[in-house]
Amino acid sequence: MTKGTLSRGAAGVCGFLLIAEALGRTGVIDPVVLPLASTVLGETLGLAADPDFLLQLGNTLDACGVGLLFSVAIAVPAGVLLGTFRKVERSARPLVEFLRPIPSVALIPVAQFLFRDPEYAKVSLVIFAASWPLLINTMYGMREVDPLAKETLRSFGFGPLAVIGRVSLPSAAPFIVTGLRIAVSVTLIVAVSVELFVGGTGLGTFMSAAAAGNQRAEMLGAVVWAGLLGLAANGLLAGAERRLFRWHHARTGEPAR
Amino acid sequence: MLEIHNLTHTYGTGPGAHEALGGVDLKVAEGELVCIVGPSGCGKSTLLRSIAGLLRPTGGEILFQGDPVERTPDNLAVVFQDYSRSLFPWMSVADNVALPLRRKGMDGRQRRQAALDALEQVDLAGAGGKYPWELSGGMQQRASIARAIAYRPTLMLMDEPFGSVDAQTREDLEDLVLRVRAKHGMTILLITHDIDESVYVGDRVIVLSKAPAKVVSDLRVQLPGPRDQITTREHPGFVQLRAEVGRLVRGRQGQAASTG
């Protein structure tokens, strides 16, 4: 990101906030229905010092983190397997094609039945939902590995496991990390959804409680935090991708910056 | 050191089957540099992949140092035409060269030293820390030759190694192969479709027929002294042999065209 795009982006955000503030102050939008931008921003800052909010936020992040770890541990090896062995992939495909399009929110009642504890329901749904982008991207990356690269290592007498570890996995790594980046945003969506519908503790529960108490500015402040979290996670991973996989961008001809 | 008896290979079965090798017989002695030429699509690469153990031929026998080739033999290295795909882009040039040495039980420091030595021999002393895609095509192919040299193979197989570089680089790389051979005394089997190249670098030139490939002719190259891009190429022996190989390669094609 250059300085120019950064300052333009900042200008866009400020402009949006100013317009929202003006609409509220001039009475076009009733500040009782939708609180003023400045009120929401103040509440957002205030939440950073609110111990109850921080505890709930921590719970959501916990569920996202634990869920993500499990889905990486399950989906990446599964993707390696399906991407390496055509026969396994053919037998698994109908199941994958059926399960993948199910909206994870639609599985909330199922998870509720399976797990009495809402925290378990939340983590299990996070694992389920975050596994798909990881699985699909890993599989795709493994299939895209250049056969000549594998053959090169084989020609030096390396066996099939060494070929997977030293050629296929490094070569598929950019795809796997793209899957990870998508999975991270999925974990946040699913965790908050489950909290909204089922309860337990977390950002979603905090929002429900604020909405029930008609604390609109507080509710919107929590929404702003959810957005900021997603933005930060995405930015961090995208930055890591650019740094780690310069070779990939250099080869595919995409700009490295 | 390498003996091939009646090697056949057919891709696929039934009416769509393609017979690539139709009974190839070949012997290569220790320390020889043998060039294999033939019309394009004649099965040269199939032959090389069979010797490297990357492909299981459907018939015949390959003996490498007296043992039948069933998997990739030790002490063998391959240099492929497509260097940009054969070098690993996520590793530095030095790491690329050092990687196969893991098979030799060398520790990290020994591997690194061997890699730097090999890079120096191909005039890439300063490029070890760079990535392959930061180098020109000719330099990348030098790096893959360095990877083969560092491995200290007794047999080096080269599959059209200079097919993707410009003419000037090609001549430099031909001389590099000759230098490497003189220094290490390894046996080299080089596949090419360039008739001049086969006569210039080879001790022997094997001409293959079009697919299904058989050995049409086995010519010994007798040219004086160290080879030189200018004087060797104007030597009457070179000119005469190049014409002979050219006739053998084209003659077969011409015949096929007139009967087909």
What is the fold's blueprint, element by element?
The complex is a heterodimer of chains A (257) and B (260).
Chain A lengths: L2 H23 L11 H11 L3 H34 L1 H14 L8 H7 L3 H26 L3 H9 L4 H39 L4 H10 L3 H29 L1 H7 L5
Chain B lengths: L1 E10 L6 E11 L4 E5 L6 H8 L7 E6 L2 E2 L7 E4 L3 H4 L6 H6 L9 H14 L15 H14 L4 E5 L7 H18 L2 E5 L3 H7 L2 E5 L6 E6 L10 H4 L1 H24 L1
Parallel strand pairs in B: 3-8, 3-9, 6-7, 7-8
Antiparallel strand pairs in B: 1-2, 1-4, 4-5, 9-10
List keywords for this structure.
heterodimer; A: mainly alpha; MetI-like fold; B: 260 residues; alpha/beta; Rossmann fold; 6-stranded mixed beta sheet; 10 strands; globular
Summarize the structure.
Chain A is mostly helical and 257 residues long.
Describe this structure as you would to a colleague.
The complex is a heterodimer of chains A (257) and B (260). With 257 residues, chain A is mostly helical. Chain A has one domain: MetI-like fold. Helix content of chain A is 81%, strand content 0%. Chain A has eleven helices and no strands. Chain A is globular, with a radius of gyration of 22 Å. The model of chain A has no long low-confidence stretch (mean pLDDT 91). In chain B, the strands form two sheets. In chain B, strands 6-7-8-3-9-10 form a six-stranded mixed sheet, sandwiched between helices. A four-stranded antiparallel sheet of chain B has the order 2-1-4-5, covered by helices on one side. Chain B is globular. Chains A and B meet through helix 7, helix 8 and helix 11 of A and strand 6 of B.
CATH fold-level topology of chain A: MetI-like fold
The assigned CATH architecture of the domain at 1-75 and 187-260 in chain B is: 3-Layer(aba) Sandwich
Global geometry of chain A: globular
Uncertain runs of chain B are: 252-260
Uncertain segments of chain A of ≥5 residues (pLDDT<50)? Answer: none
**DSSP summary: helix tally of chain A:** 11
Terminal-residue CA separation of chain A:
7 Å
What's the multimeric state?
heterodimer
